[in-house]
Amino acid sequence: MLTDYHLHLRPDGNDADVAEYHTQANVERYRAVAEERGIAELGVSEHVYRFAQALGVWRHPFWETYAHDDLDEYCAFVREHTDLRLGLEADFVPGAEDRMANLLQERDFDYVVGSVHFLREGAVDMDDYSVWDSARSPEEVWRRYFDTIAEAARSGLFDIAAHPDLVKYWGPARPTHPSASRRTPEGDLRRYYEPAVEAIAEAGIAVEVSTAGLRKPAGEMYPSRAFLEMCVDAGVPVALSSDAHRPEDVGADYQHALELLDAVGVRELCVFEGRARRLVAIGASDTDRSAESNEAGAR
Ligand SMILES: [Zn+2]
Ligand SMILES: [Zn+2]
Questions:
Q1: Nearest alpha carbon to residue 107 among 84, 81, 79
Q2: Residue 196 CA, ligand 1 centroid: distance in Å
Q3: FRET pair for 102, CA 20 to 30 Å: which of 27, 33, 36, 255?
Q4: Ligand 1 centroid vs 179 CA: distance in angstroms?
Q5: Ligand 2: distance of its center to the CA of 9 in Å?
Q6: Strand 292-293's sheet: what is its strand order?
Q7: Residue 265 backbone zone (phi > 0: left; psi -120 to 50: alpha; other: beta)
Q8: Could you say which ligand is closest to the alpha carbon of residue 245?
Q9: Which ligand does the CA of 88 lie closest to?
């Protein structure tokens, strides 16, 4: 059975209004594409910073620009009007763990996708507030990035480590950018991955395999094959997602993801309900319960 758990029902723009996108008709468009592509299990994970309640956690100017909607209305819409799993993409904000924990615990999510888009105030994957403007070197940014992923994993806030090497977003360089410079360290990158993979494994959370990177300047899946192999060696289970922000991207490029998963020996995917996890065989039909395996110690 295939999943797509990291879905947004609308584009990231500030003009994408819930009245237009958080509708049954829009969910049906996502379902239709999923059905065409053989994906049975869908979950929605809107960005936490689109909701007013997020400003009680962090007041970054980017969040202040976007935090308009009501988180409880979103949860009620998904529960009462859709058959989607209820998730949230929550940023890891160092120092705000208790406030984020409260926001998450007060609602009955099926799972929480934990992501790192910012290193302190600096954005990894946006021109606005870009961490790269003041970066001394790609080595420094990469080291800080994966250390933060490790901290996020150990925080206990999340079920899935989202796009865990998002720091490669821009690719090795940005020739079109005025301050074009190298944005990927040279040599074997596994030295950067190590602390993150170790923390993800010890925390017992899942790692996301996301096809979104194929649609970004990086031009490759999140995470890299080397990162994923390290996760598999450490016994970390996989959650499969597209990070679609529009119906046509549901399950985008899954053939590449499935080839990669097969090549590194991943045969099962995570399924979540009420923040409990089970594993289902990739080849199983969605009604084939015998394909489930019970994980010892799953959270
Ligand atoms: Zn993200
Ligand atoms: Zn996302």
A1: 79
A2: 17
A3: 27
A4: 24
A5: 10
A6: 268-273, 276-281, 292-293
A7: left
A8: 2
A9: 2
For residue 274, how far is its CA from the centre of ligand 1 (angstroms)? 22
Is residue 88 a contact partner of residue 108, using CB atoms and an 8 Å limit? Answer: no
What does each of the 299 residues of the chain score in pLDDT, given as a tens digit? 999 999 999 999 999 999 999 999 999 999 999 999 999 999 999 999 999 999 999 999 999 999 999 999 999 999 999 999 999 999 999 999 999 999 999 999 999 999 999 999 999 999 999 999 888 899 999 999 999 999 999 999 999 999 999 999 998 766 555 555 688 998 999 999 999 999 999 999 999 999 999 999 999 999 999 999 999 999 999 999 999 999 999 999 999 999 999 999 999 999 999 999 999 999 887 666 555 665 644 44
Determine the distance from the C-alpha atom of residue 276 to the mean position of all C-alpha atoms in its chain, rounded to a whole number: 17
* Ligand 2 centroid from CA 211, angstroms: 11
Q: Would you call 201 helix, strand, or coil by DSSP?
A: helix
> Ligand 1 centroid vs 161 CA: distance in angstroms?
10
What residues have their beta carbon closer than 5 A to ion ligand 2? 89, 243
